[in-house]
Amino acid sequence: MGLTSKSMGMHALDNPFTIVKSQPDDIIIALAGNPNVGKSTVFNSLTGLNQHTGNWAGKTVTNAHGVFKKNSRNYILVDLPGAYSIFPHSAEEEVARDFICFGNPDAILIVCDATCLERNLNLVFQIIEVTPCVMLCINFMDEAKKKQIDINLPLLEQLLKIPVVSSSARNRSGLTDLTNQLVNFSASPRASYENPHILYPEPIETAIKIISSGLEHSFLSNINKRWIALKLLDYDDSLWNGITRHLHLNPLDDVSLLAACNEARKHIEQAGYTKESLRDELIRSIVKKSEQVYQQVVTQNTSSSCQRQKSLDKLLTNRVSGIPIMLSLLCLVFYLTITGANYPSKLLSSLLFGLESHLSKWFRYAGITEWIRGPLIDGAYRVLAWVVSVMLPPMAIFFPLFTLLEDFGYLPRVAFNLDHIFKKSCTCGKQCLSMWIVAICYTVSLTSLLINL
Description:
Blueprint: H1 5-8, E1 27-33, H2 39-47, E2 64-70, E3 73-79, H3 91-102, E4 107-113, H4 117-130, E5 134-139, H5 141-146, E6 149-151, H6 153-160, E7 164-166, H7 175-186, H8 202-213, H9 225-233, H10 237-247, H11 255-270, H12 275-297, E8 298-300, H13 304-316, H14 322-340, H15 342-365, H16 370-407, H17 410-422, H18 431-452
Parallel strand pairs: 1-3, 1-4, 4-5, 5-7
Antiparallel strand pairs: 2-3, 6-8
């Protein structure tokens, strides 16, 4: 998937889920999950469509989709952008939320990472509150086994009240079972599933019931009425903008519904909740439920490596030590990149510019005119030699170092540390990683400019 004006332009997200069916009975399955859970790997394995499987959210900016056939029927798999929540904080999360709400998929397959299931369950509970047509795929079971993590899948299925299947998509393990269960699940009628929901504090539950009474004729038949009431209570403007944009209606035009919303919000305010504290309470309830389920279904051998990992987490994400460590590592990477590049740069420079004189002699010996030799040797070749000798060594040092930090799991911790700062600019912490790359590119460019001067 290349970067085109269609995929990256201003209107890239205007209509992100126009899925064309080749047959009326085609089944549309949305593929959702946190970033870095192997979602795109599952997508590629099932559909055979080669899509870039990067390590960070936002690689699938628009909704990629592919088709696989089973029992003479087409199953359209839509790879949604990676999202941590459907309380959207980014364009990618909003696209994922909107497709789940307005794309009318026949089923939603949520992919989770077996090694960090507790964090992934937050998204699972949010989605199953929206629609009951959810199936869960626990990926990276091979990695979980290495870390001595045992997941009780039957109990998890019982607690979530949705089908659960395990896989190791990179090794293609469990994909046949996943495909069969997904086909069987997506063919079942919606009414056969039960919506489990999170129990919120009593004032919030009362407010939800008040709004639900005004939703007797819901404008979104495929979405749980309770969840719609919750979003009305939560002042989720992005959702209502989505309803207006995709369904061309305003739910608050209903006078009785508007009155119910006002009554519910008044009840919430009397209970001491503000707009911000209400959102915090909703998230706290989801996290608490995820923790409870995780503790019931997951057992882990607390080996020394696990304890070491937890100690590193505390150190690297600590409010006091996290930022200084990040700045120190950034300076170290810059120092190694710039200083370390001097030696290979000198070597390449002497080699390439030494070759230039030999090429000039060969051109003259061959009788090639000066107006041809000049542009080719003094122009194109000399510029290329400068670029390669100055730019290549820093890049060859920086990107392996950057990859090592990513493989060791440090870069997600950096994104976590800076997330609250970047949110003040209406973005998220992972944008700092792009800034790192831009900074090193500017540094290398400045270095090359100084050398040329």
